[in-house]
Amino acid sequence: MRVAGAADLAELIRTQVLDDSPRPPAQPAQLTAREPEVAEPVAEGLSNQAVATRLCLSRRTVETQLSAIYRKADAPSRAALASLRTGTAFGGLS
């Protein structure tokens, strides 16, 4: 049984690093019909509870949808979500 040496491992890594084959661009995930309704007031600065009250939802539902929106829009924070809103409607993300 042959044990892989450092040279073998280096060759394996080198081929992976140098692999410059084209990759398809990442497609943004589509928002559900409700998610833009949650994203808009959050981007305006409303708290989760205020959004929940406005939309007649539970705070936990808003938090769950907001987590999905962050993931789909690749936005790490409320501020990033608000910056996405500038010049782009959230419906455009869907």
Automatic annotation (TrEMBL):
<feature type="region of interest" description="Disordered">
    <location>
        <begin position="15"/>
        <end position="44"/>
    </location>
</feature>
<feature type="domain" description="HTH luxR-type">
    <location>
        <begin position="24"/>
        <end position="87"/>
    </location>
</feature>
<dbReference type="InterPro" id="IPR036388">
    <property type="entry name" value="WH-like_DNA-bd_sf"/>
</dbReference>
<keyword id="KW-0238">DNA-binding</keyword>
<dbReference type="GO" id="GO:0003677">
    <property type="term" value="F:DNA binding"/>
</dbReference>
<dbReference type="InterPro" id="IPR000792">
    <property type="entry name" value="Tscrpt_reg_LuxR_C"/>
</dbReference>
<dbReference type="InterPro" id="IPR016032">
    <property type="entry name" value="Sig_transdc_resp-reg_C-effctor"/>
</dbReference>
<dbReference type="Pfam" id="PF00196">
    <property type="entry name" value="GerE"/>
</dbReference>
<dbReference type="GO" id="GO:0006355">
    <property type="term" value="P:regulation of DNA-templated transcription"/>
</dbReference>
<keyword id="KW-0804">Transcription</keyword>
<protein>
    <recommendedName>
        <fullName>HTH luxR-type domain-containing protein</fullName>
    </recommendedName>
</protein>
<keyword id="KW-0805">Transcription regulation</keyword>
